[in-house]
Task: inverse folding
């Protein structure tokens, strides 16, 4: 299968702190890859490194075979077709729902805005509401819809479930399962709460202290005896790799 | 003075006066207060003194003192009125103040209207000006070495830290505005005494540029900055007379160039040269591996003389270890429609290590912020050692003085201060207040005691220490974190809050940090630590509290909590 | 500061006349203030050198008229893009290098102050230290009677120009792609970058627009009050500051309303009390606003829908 993202030996650092240490991962086109791990495991740092928002000290990232420049700026990466939804639902509050989506919409493809509304009917009903007035769940839908409207090849979703009530997370993940999965867009999904991610993913990677300590299918991960240990134990956990 | 400067006497006297006024601006800017009311104070002082000496008595000294005090009072009032402003708003407010003062002076008949006052008694010579300037400079230099001066530096670079170590930010602001007024008023009065007349037109918008130029070109955080800046700004056109009409233009370009290329001003150039030379000589960085090596060799259960002594009042002898130090009752907080904390209640026991854990966004840091005073909770109460903290909630300086200290998620050392100075600042709340203690001996003793303890920190062989004079920004990450802990301990806290102290550390470093915390608890310091590594908490904590969605899920013994199904569900969702 | 009308004192007509004078001035001042506040909302910095951009317009136009015999109107047309370019130049020289500084606000203020000083001195040099005026032949002031009101052609120009410009600005900010981007960057620069918005480009556009608006405001003012010097901008920048704070940074409506109010208050108090006390009222109102409601009458530092 062709690869969407090919990450090789990536190291991401914030000043002297190394947040990601030599991570390698191949993300196949059209798949859903989930990255799980505790706080500080490096999931957000990895995304920021890919985007160019954090300094990568070594390694490289290939997007559809083409190398991303080392001194890239986030908006350049996004223009190439890699959409990013950072954790915390950063909607542009003084803009309406519709205007938020129009910020990223692919102007050559006018259908993309309607597609976003079609996917999230709740948003369509509130298209002229200021984004700041939406509920947490609606804001999360907005940022995902906004990312989709740019017609990207690949979307990096950082902790979409953070701070949301379980029933809202359920709704979002159902839409994800039904409509987005298998649509041709590649999804790289970072989550602290594993349950939903495991349900929708084709492949799961477990991160701990900046390194990929396990990679496999959801079933393989669920079968891991010591998931909690790997998750929580920063010190001395065994490293397993599935084939 | 005329013998010294000859034909340039007038220019020199003018320069001296404006330098005195600039020191007032320097005080505010050094403390990170972006305000430029100086010229307004000068106008007030000039006219107050002018009116006094032309109508009441011809005594120059009394007139000058009157002018200075009048302006100081206005300064205090202004500082109080503008206490909630910061940044650009504050700057604009002070510019508006200057304009208002100028307009009022232009319109009051007592100040002579637009033509101003004439017939002001003259100074016999410029010597008194030089003496005044000299005195101001001496005071400024003394200030920069005093506790107040250190507090100002920390206020500028890490204002959150300043408040959390006991600096009453509001009071400093008002006081600095007052002193700034005093200096500005004095300078204004002297301006009248030098020229014999004053006009409102002298104290307008363009004079603001002059003062800003003097302070910024010279250097906002060096005591000699305004002096050097004044010499350059006023001296340059005199020395290079061929410039003529281009003098002002050069001033403007010079200001731009200095701001962009030499951030600390001309006064900081010697430092830049010295540190560049040092960097060229010494090794580039301390290897983190070396640090882990050294720290893993240090015995982790060592107690005794190598440890920072703990405040007597926190020792377990006064009360039993295990009794309740602090009680949180129904703490709730929300902002922007998000509930950050929901009815959180629990006790903190004296001498324990309490771990605080929970998924992202569960409210851990918010809880710490409430306890340390950074946030005022919407509801709930806290009782600390049988005292209701109601009057201290939301006031980190008061809570700090009660004996609570903390570290932050991000490193908050003061980059411009050395390692020793950073650690010593932690003792601010114990620093002698000269005005309060009324005793030189007592003040001196307290100061030496603090200095001794700081030296002890650096003399101990526990960890691979930086040189006390090292610039903190170039130290390795782990060392910076250690310094933050030492700084907090210098305050001799009863309660020590840590927000992810081991974030980004290797397992060895992490174990070392937690070992240290364990020892501190043995010595009677109560510890509350936020961590996401459950293993570390399991090994080192007496109890663990778990937060989820702002709710206290459970609190209890580590093994209990780690195997609790609710916790697993909250974290893993399985 | 405000010219009195030629109608006799007292009476409703006089009041109306002064009000119209004030509105015309206020509308034009609003152009200047809004441009200034867009930059403030975009970057959070105080581009005090904007005063020099204001002065540059009439100054360069004057030089073109005097030395090249160009008509005032053509000069004006030429000057607008030049002022825009000057503002962008100021961005690259005094603002951009200081973006990452911890004491960003102070340093940028100081740097812009340096640029302002230098440009003003340059302007004075070009005018040989004089305060000049457009030659009377360059344009003629005529007055029209609208009912019993006396309105000069300059005032009509001010009103029409401002209203058209604000309508255009409103359209751009509310309905166009770049307008959305400007609002997004003013609100959250980082998040906007992650959405593919080139925030640097947006900033340059804002500086361009801001500079152009300063020129648009400066020409009619310099025609009306007919004195041009390097320091022309100083008086108006302080007024613009007052208006921005009272109206709220980035709030176009707020700034517009505050500006018109300022113009009217100024005009009326100059007519009925004395011209200097009107300034006291204005700045007193500014200080009062800052003490009571530090963020101004409008909410956040963002660019609202117009």
Result:
């Amino acid at each position: 299968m062709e690869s969407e993202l090919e990450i090789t030996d990536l190291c991401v650092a914030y000043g002297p702190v190394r947040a990601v240490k030599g991570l390698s991962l191949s993300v196949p086109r059209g798949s859903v890859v989930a990255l799980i791990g505790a706080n500080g495991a490096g999931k957000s740092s990895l995304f920021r490194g890919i985007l160019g928002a954090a300094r990568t000290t070594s390694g490289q990232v290939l997007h559809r075979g083409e190398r991303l420049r080392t001194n890239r700026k986030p908006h350049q990466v996004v223009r190439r077709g890699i959409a990013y939804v950072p954790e915390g639902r950063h909607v542009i509050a003084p803009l309406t729902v519709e205007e938020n989506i129009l910020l990223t919409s692919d102007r050559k493809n006018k259908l993309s805005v309607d597609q976003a509304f079609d996917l999230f009917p709740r948003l369509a009903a509130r298209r002229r509401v200021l984004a700041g007035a939406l509920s947490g769940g609606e804001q999360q839908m907005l940022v995902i819809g906004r990312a989709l409207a740019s017609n990207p090849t690949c979307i990096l979703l950082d902790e979409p479930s953070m701070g949301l009530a379980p029933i809202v997370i359920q709704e979002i993940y159902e839409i994800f399962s039904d409509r987005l999965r298998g649509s041709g867009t590649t999804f790289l999904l970072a989550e602290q709460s594993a349950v939903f991610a495991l349900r929708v993913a084709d492949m799961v990677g477990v991160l701990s202290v900046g390194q990929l300590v396990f990679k496999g299918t959801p079933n393989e991960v669920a079968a891991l005896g010591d998931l909690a240990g790997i998750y929580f134990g920063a010190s001395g956990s065994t490293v397993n790799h599935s084939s | 003075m005329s013998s010294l400067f000859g034909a340039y006497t007038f220019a020199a006297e003018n320069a001296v006066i404006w330098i005195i006024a600039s020191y007032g601006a320097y005080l505010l800017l050094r403390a990170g207060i972006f305000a430029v009311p100086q010229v307004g104070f000068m106008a007030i002082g000039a006219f107050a003194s002018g009116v006094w000496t032309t109508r009441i008595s011809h005594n120059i000294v009394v007139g000058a003192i009157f002018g200075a005090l009048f302006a100081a009072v206005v300064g205090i009032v202004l500082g109080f009125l503008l206490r909630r402003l910061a940044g650009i708003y504050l700057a604009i407010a002070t510019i508006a103040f200057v304009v208002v003062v100028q307009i009022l002076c232009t319109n009051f008949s007592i100040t002579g209207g637009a033509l101003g006052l004439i017939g002001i008694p003259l100074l016999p010579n410029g010597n008194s000006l030089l003496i005044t300037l000299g005195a101001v400079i001496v005071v400024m230099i003394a200030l920069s070495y005093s506790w107040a001066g250190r507090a100002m530096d920390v206020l500028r670079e890490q204002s959150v830290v300043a408040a959390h170590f006991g600096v009453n930010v509001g009071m400093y602001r008002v006081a600095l505005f007052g002193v700034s007024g005093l200096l500005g008023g004095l300078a204004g009065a002297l301006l009248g005494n030098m020229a014999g007349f004053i006009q409102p037109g002298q104290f307008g918008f363009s004079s603001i540029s002059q003062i800003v130029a003097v302070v910024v070109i010279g250097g906002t955080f060096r005591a000699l900055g305004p002096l050097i800046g004044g010499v350059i700004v006023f001296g340059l056109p005199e020395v290079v007379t061929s410039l003529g009409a281009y003098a002002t233009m050069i001033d403007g370009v010079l200001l731009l160039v200095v701001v962009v290329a030499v951030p600390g001003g001309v006064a900081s150039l010697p430092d830049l040269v010295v540190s560049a030379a040092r960097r060229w000589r010494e090794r580039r960085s301390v290897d983190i591996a070396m640090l882990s090596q050294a720290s893993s060799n240090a015995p982790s259960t060592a107690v005794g003389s190598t440890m920072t002594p703990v405040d007597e009042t926190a020792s377990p002898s006064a009360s039993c270890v295990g009794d309740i130090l602090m009680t949180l009752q129904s703490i709730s907080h929300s902002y922007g429609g998000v509930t950050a904390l929901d009815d959180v209640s629990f006790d903190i026991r004296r001498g324990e290590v309490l771990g605080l854990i929970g998924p992202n966004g569960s409210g851990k840091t918010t809880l710490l912020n409430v306890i340390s005073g950074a946030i005022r909770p919407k509801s709930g109460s806290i009782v600390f050692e049988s005292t209701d903290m109601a009057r201290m909630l939301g006031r980190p300086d008061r809570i700090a003085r009660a004996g609570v200290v903390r570290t932050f998620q991000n490193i908050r050392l003061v980059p411009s201060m050395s390692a020793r100075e950073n650690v010593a600042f932690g003792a601010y709340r114990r620093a002698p207040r000269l005005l309060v203690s009324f005793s030189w001996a007592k003040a001196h003793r307290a100061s030496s005691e603090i200095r001794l303890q700081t030296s002890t920190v650096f003399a101990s062989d526990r960890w691979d220490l930086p040189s006390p004079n090292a610039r903190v920004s170039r130290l390795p990450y782990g060392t910076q974190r250690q310094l933050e802990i030492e700084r907090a301990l210098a305050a001799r806290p009863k309660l020590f809050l840590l927000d992810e102290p081991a974030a980004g550390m290797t397992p060895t470093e992490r174990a070392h940090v937690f070992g240290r915390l364990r020892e501190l608890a043995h010595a009677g310091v109560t510890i509350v630590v936020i961590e996401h590594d459950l293993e570390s908490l399991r090994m080192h904590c007496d109890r663990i509290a778990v937060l989820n969605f702002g709710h206290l899920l459970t609190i209890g013994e580590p093994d209990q909590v780690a195997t609790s199904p609710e916790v697993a569900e909250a974290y893993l969702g399985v | 500061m405000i010219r009195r009308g030629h109608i006799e004192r007292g009476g409703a007509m006089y009041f109306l006349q002064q009000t119209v004078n004030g509105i015309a001035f206020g509308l034009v001042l609003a152009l200047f203030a809004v441009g200034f506040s867009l930059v403030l909302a975009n970057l959070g910095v105080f581009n005090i050198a904007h005063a020099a951009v204001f002065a540059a317009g009439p100054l360069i136009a004057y030089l073109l008229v005097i030395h090249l015999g160009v008509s005032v109107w053509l000069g004006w047309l030429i000057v607008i893009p030049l002022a825009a370019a000057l503002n962008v130049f100021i961005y690259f020289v005094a603002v951009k290098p200081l973006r990452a500084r911890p004491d960003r606000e102070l340093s940028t203020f100081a740097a812009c102050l340096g640029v302002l000083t230098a440009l003003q001195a340059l302007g004075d040099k070009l005018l040989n230290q004089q305060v000049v005026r457009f030659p009377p032949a360059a344009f003629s002031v005529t007055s029209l009677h609208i009912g019993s009101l006396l309105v000069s052609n300059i005032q009509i120009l001010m009103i029409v120009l401002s209203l058209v410009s604000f309508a255009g600005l409103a359209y751009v900010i509310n309905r166009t792609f770049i307008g959305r981007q400007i609002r997004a960057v003013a609100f959250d620069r980082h998040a906007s970058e992650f959405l593919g918005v080139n925030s640097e480009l947006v900033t340059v556009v804002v500086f361009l627009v801001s500079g152009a608006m300063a020129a648009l405001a400066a020409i009619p003012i310099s025609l009306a009050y007919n004195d041009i010097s390097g320091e022309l901008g100083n008086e108006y920048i302080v007024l613009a500051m007052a208006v921005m704070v009272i109206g709220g940074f980035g709030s176009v409506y707020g700034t517009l309303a505050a500006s018109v109010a300022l113009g009217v208050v100024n005009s009326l108090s100059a007519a009925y009390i004395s011209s200097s006390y009107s300034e006291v009222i204005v700045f007193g109102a500014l200080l009062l606003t800052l003490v009571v409601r530090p963020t101004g009458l409008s909410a956040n530092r963002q660019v609202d829908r117009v």
